[in-house]
Amino acid sequence: SLQTLLQRAGYDYNVELGRKQEEEPFSYLFTPKPTFAQTTVRSEPQTVSQTPSPGRPVGKTDSRQREPKDSTVVTAGIGDKLSAEQERLFEQYVAEVYDAFNALVQSKDVDGFMSRLQSLNRTWMQQIGALGYKEAGGVFEVDPDWIDGAVEFINSFAEGFAEALRADIANDVDLEHWRWRVYLYPQEGRNYAYMWGVQQSMKEHGARSWRRILHPELSKTGPCDACVADSKIVHPISEGFWEPHPGGFCTAEAVAFYTGPTEVPVEVPIPPKATLPEQIMNILKRLGGNIIQIVRRIRG
Q: What is the pTM of this model?
């Protein structure tokens, strides 16, 4: 909850609520004007470019199987593609989660699998959060309690998953069709942890708020309505990064961090997700995993 996040960041909820209520009549003075023209900070060389967005492509239908265009217009020091260390941590994360799932398929021990899954989420998300903090210029150490907020969110889906697994086991249903849902844990865990690490670093560098940035010109299907709605909201820096749809496919997005109402924001692309069959096949091939069931699940 927002109260929990504020308390974790060291703020008093009632005090902040009172201040927000007092400032509400003047909020328009501090809110960026709604626009699809986004500011992108490039790392090498250190220049600022304007990237006009034409909006959602016309005549296109939503499809989760369409491959987004490579982003050659929007570049940044971090996030526009996975660093070698991000790839290494993510693939190890996927490998250990699948090892746990493979054990479940054989043992049918749902409680054991859930305990292992949640433990792996915490272990790997802490490491990835520390990496996000470092790659965003953090000079101290990432706060493990802060990253745990992201871990708790990812682990909150485990109970419903456990119920579905028990139902399938009770009805003697093959568990292989759950490989896609299993894959979502390291995929979403990676993104949440990384962006929360980035967020802590940005806060230390003076950021006071963040806002979701859309780049529909880099996508064949454009963003969903939920992301469009959220892109109009400026969130306090104490509110952890979140996605309107866990496991979502709106990949051409970034987060802009604001240090003040008149300052140029720093835009950090959200790490791209591997959601296409070919991308996931490549990951699993490198891991030596079984690729058949997960690819069938994605292709429907």
A: 0.69
